[in-house]
Structure formats: structure tokens, C-alpha cells
Amino acid sequence: MHEDDRAEAYMAEDRKNMTESACVFLDSWLAGMEGALEQWRRSYLPADFPFDFTLDSLDVLEPVVLARYPDQAAIGIEDNAEFTTGTVRYIGEVLLRVVPARWGYQDRAGDDLNPFNRTPVIRSNTPAKFTTGVIPEFYLRQLVRDRVRGTLQKSVTPLRAACREAERADPPTTRDAVPDWCEFFTLDEYNRFTAAVDSALGAFGADGQDLDAGYFSLAAGDPDPDMHDFEIDGLADQCRASDIEDWSTLCFSVIDDYVTGQPQRDWLNKVPFTQVEDLLEPWLADEPELLFEPGPDDSEQPFSIRLEDGRYLHFLATVPELEGIPEITTFVPNSAVRAWNIPVEKLVQWGTQRL
User: Fold this and answer.
1) What local confidence, expressed as pLDDT, does residue 1 receive?
2) Separation of alpha carbons 165 and 191, rounded Å
3) Which end of the chain is less congested by CB atoms within 10 angstroms, N or C?
4) At residue 340, does pLDDT exceed 60?
5) Could you tell me if 326 and 217 are in contact, meaning their C-beta atoms sit under 8 angstroms apart?
6) Which three-class secondary structure state does DSSP give residue 169?
7) E strands along the chain, which residues?
8) 226-231 and 328-331 as β-strands: parallel, antiparallel, unpaired?
9) What is the pLDDT of residues 50-84, one digit of tens each?
């Protein structure tokens, strides 16, 4: 079967489970693709942009995106709507050209809390048990949040992994039951879940682990990452509550947060200074510690301030165990310092007294 015919067959199968409003949206989205992309190209891209729908062109697109969006909030403002939609379209169309896949969409009333609802998605052209969904906007937001080059190309990884799994055609397995910690899965669902987790871990060089014990090991923490064990029963619960084609994106999102310390930063933003004071340690460096490209004043960047001797004062926090997440040391972000509502001078005095 020709790949175009294969995509049409999968899309026809998708429509059997789509609401009428979802079908209307997807038909309109696809019908306007060529014109919308050409308008986006003329209006927002530099004249020398390689508009060739290759993965390399996504690398060239990233500085254009970063120049447009100073932060994630800018993605949602009305003045950027056309640029945002065009970027999502282009990322998706690149993926369609480098891996067997098709566009998808779901519109389920009352499911607004589901991040995969009412969002264009790219689904792998694979049998149902291997189907993986990738949301282009997720990678766009990740790029804007982390300011790390190469982020957009990562969107192809889950799709390629799904195609490889499908090509193996029922790979042999000795597993005949699911572990007790996730007995709500069927054996087929559990195999699919572990494949999604393994694929996400592969983006960080941590794939190939035995997940039957209910955890995986991953390097995380600051200033020098250490290996930590992360429980995955909570992630299994999240997948169970989501559509199976969304599992790959969901697993990647959660594991990416583990690597970047997002749960620890969120916790520091929520608790008062009195609760973290005993968990803090001052840390000096010759330059401000930057986790990603924006300047040191970005809310997610580690707090730092230049002392009289020219060195920069930071703070490390040993964040206690969270739900399924071990104790991890991380840099205190600017957002936490602002949330604590402590004068910077007082915080600096507190830190220098403990050096």
C-alpha cells in the first residue's frame, strides 16, 4: 500500500471515534494547510529561510521562534496567534515528511483539563497498539520555556520509536502478567506503557531499563546531576486516564520535567521561606548559573547576585521527597525568591553569613 493511501486509511479509522466538531475542525485544518503555510512564510520568515520541510529547517526556525516569544505567555497572546498556528502547522508538516504519520484532532466537551484535547496532533501510521501521538505545540512551548536549541527536532523521536516497534511485528516477550503496582493495566496496555516510558528515557540516554519494579533511574539535580530512582506508578495512573495515543507525549513531558527540576521549582514557589530555610545552602560561582538561554532575570533561572568580590551568590535547596520523586538538590529560581517576598538584601545577608 502506498504511504498516502495508508495515511488515508488510518485517518478514516480515526474518524470513527471522532466527534462531529472534531471532524469539521480537522477537515478545515487540512484544507487550509497550503495557503496558511504560504501566508505564514511570507509574513514571518526571513527571505533565506530553508522552507523545505526538513528536520534541519526546524533548527533554523528555532531562533525565529525565540526572537518572537520572550516567554511562554507570549505564545497565547492574540497578536501572535497567526505566527503560533503557522509554526504548529510547519512542525507537523515536517514530521509528516520524515516519518509515516498523519494529522489528528479530538474535541471532547467537558474534557478541557486534558492537554491533548482540542489540540492538533501528529499520530504515527502504525497499528493501534503502537500508535503514538506528538503535539507540535508541546515542543514549541518546551523550546520557549527552556531556550535550548534542538528541541523541535526531538518531536520526531517518539514517532520513529513507534514505527520501529511496529516493524518488529509482535516482538517476543516472556512477560505473562503485569506487576502488582499497576494491575489496572492489561498486559497489552502495560507493554505499551513501558514502551512509551522507554522511548522518553531514550531522549536522555537512559533507555533500556527494567521497569517491572516500578521505577527508573535518571540523572537529575544541581549543580552536578546524580542518579536518582523515580517511581512510575503515578505516571502509569496519568496514562491510564489519558488516550493511549497520548502516552508517549505524556511520558516525555513528565520525564523532561524530572530532568529539568520542574517539580522542585514548583514546590519552592509554593512554600514559605520559613519552611525551606533549613534546606538552603549558599553556593558561589564566578559567573551566574544559567540553565537555559534567557538572561539571569528570567523567573525560571537560578537566583544569583554579584557580591563585592566579583563572585555570584546562588542558593541550592535540598527539596524533600515529593509524590514519587526522591529528595533532589536544585538551584533556587528567581520565581521562588519573589514568592517568598523577602528583600534581596536580607536574603544575601542570610546567605553570606553561612558561607
Assistant:
1) 47
2) 11
3) N
4) yes
5) no
6) coil
7) 101-104, 121-124, 133-134, 215-220, 226-231, 280-285, 305-306, 312-319, 328-331
8) unpaired
9) 999 999 999 999 999 999 999 888 998 999 999 99
Per-residue confidence (pLDDT) for residue 115, from 0 to 100: 58
Q: Rounded to an integer, what is the distance from CA 123 to the centroid of its chain?
A: 17
- DSSP class of 48: T
Q: How far apart, in whole angstroms, are the C-alpha atoms of residue 217 and residue 229?
A: 4
Beta bridge partners of 229: 217
CA distance 38 to 51: 10
Ramachandran angles phi, psi of 178, nearest 5°:
-85, 155
Q: Kindly give the pairing relationship between strand 312-319 and strand 328-331.
A: antiparallel
Q: What are phi and psi of 315, to 5 degrees?
A: -130, 135
What grid cell was written down for 36?
Answer: 496558511
- pLDDT score at 3: 63
How many residues can be counted in the chain? 355
Q: What is the pLDDT of residue 172?
A: 47
Q: How sure is the predictor about 133, in pLDDT bands with cuts at 50, 70 and 90?
A: confident
Distances (CA, A) of 13 to 8, 25, 51: 9, 17, 31
Cβ-contact 132, 123 below 8 angstroms? yes
Q: Omega into 46 within 30° of 0, i.e. cis?
A: no
Q: Which residues of 261-277 are buried (b: 16+ CB within 10 A; e: fewer)?
A: bbbbbebbbeeebeebe
